[in-house]
């Protein structure tokens, strides 16, 4: 509750009027930029499958790390820790940035090595300090646990 009232309290103490948030609206999916290299970008079934995969810790070598372990919803889909830990309690090398507004970026990863948004997770999944998974293990996991959802897309 304090987080919600703190900005208004600070503005009142500073002698400013409370801001008018009535013009701010949630971003509609139609407002997202086109994704010419992802044929499934606008498919809601693909989005639901992606959401399930994002929270699935079984997409890691020891079954403890999901994408959401580091890109934590309660932290704005980022990480409040200096570096994000990986599987088998391995120390991470990087800080997981927020995923908010990533659809509007042109390159991803701290050094820009991912040139398409859909390709970025491959690096984290295969990184020994993060998920330590392989593409074959990923394919088996999706085929075993998500087959009907994958085939529906």
Would you spell out the secondary-structure blueprint of this structure?
Layout: H1 2-13, H2 44-54, H3 67-70, H4 120-126, H5 135-145, H6 147-152
Low-confidence stretches: 1-13
Gap between N and C termini: 40 Å
- One letter per element, helices H and strands E, the order comes to HHHHHH
Largest sheet: none
Find the count of extended strands (DSSP E, 2+ residues): 0
* Share of residues in strands: under 5%
Rg computed from alpha carbons, rounded to a whole number of angstroms: 19 Å
> Count of DSSP helices?
6
- What form results from the Cα inertia axes? globular
Question: Assembly type of the shown chains?
Answer: single chain
From the helix content, strand content and strand pairing, which structural class follows?
mainly alpha
**Portion of residues in helices?**
25-40%
Mean pLDDT: 82
Brief descriptors of the model:
6 helices; 153 residues; globular; mainly alpha
């Amino acid at each position: 509750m304090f987080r919600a009232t703190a900005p208004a309290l600070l503005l009142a103490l500073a002698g400013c009027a409370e801001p008018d948030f009535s013009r701010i609206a949630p971003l509609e999916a139609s407002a997202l930029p086109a994704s010419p290299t992802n044929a499934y970008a606008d498919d809601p079934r693909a989005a639901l499958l992606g959401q399930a995969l994002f929270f699935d810790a079984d997409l890691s070598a020891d079954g403890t790390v999901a994408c959401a372990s580091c890109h934590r919803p309660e932290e704005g889909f980022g990480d409040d820790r200096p570096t994000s830990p990986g599987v088998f309690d391995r120390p991470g090398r990087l800080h997981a940035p927020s995923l908010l507004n990533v659809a509007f970026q042109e390159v991803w990863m701290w050094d820009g090595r991912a040139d398409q948004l859909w390709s970025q997770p491959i690096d984290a999944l295969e990184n020994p300090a993060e998920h330590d998974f392989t593409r074959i293990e990923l394919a088996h996991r999706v085929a075993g646990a998500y087959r009907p959802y994958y085939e529906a897309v």
